[in-house]
Amino acid sequence: MVSLQGKSIKLRALETGDLDLLFELENHPTVWEISGTIAPYSRDVLKLYLENAHRDIYDVKQLRLVICTLDNEAIGLIDLFDFDPKNKRAGVGIVISEEGKRNKGIGTEALEILCRYAFKTLGLQQLYANILEENYSSLHLFKKLGFELVGTKRDWIFTEGVFKNELLFQKIFR
């Protein structure tokens, strides 16, 4: 089994104490833009989600992990979604909660750990990411870790009266 700990961060399962982090991130407009959400999540709905977060990735087709410092401060989330064990692939999403903690290597380390886990433990052959064209930080992160641009979904996201392009990146384990 691949370790979910790096030099400065670790990935861990969701816990009931993560309600505030989940509430903040799931109700942030920048997350809505890419998740297709159009209405806020209540704390009650998110509590129910947390109560079921223990369910197996093979059952719910998603694995959400909390990105933490080594002293267990929760600083973001990283997901495998659309898990498809037959075709050995999944989508990847990542968000660091505070803007001041972004672009400091946390996302790189978290994504490296998740990729190792997906390829070595889950036996996936490929991961993909959907990234808005103007999200330069995410574009840099995924390119740095070997994800390749494979397509453009033109006018894919409609937000604030404007259509935006979404780019599709893949990383194939070889």
UniProtKB/TrEMBL annotation:
Residue span, N-acetyltransferase domain: 9-174
InterPro entries xrefs: Acyl_CoA_acyltransferase, GNAT_dom
A molecular-function term among this protein's GO annotations: acyltransferase activity, transferring groups other than amino-acyl groups
SUPFAM superfamilies: Acyl-CoA N-acyltransferases (Nat)
Classification via PROSITE patterns: GNAT
Protein name in the entry: N-acetyltransferase
Organism: Maribacter algicola
Upper classification of the organism: Bacteria, Pseudomonadati, Bacteroidota, Flavobacteriia, Flavobacteriales
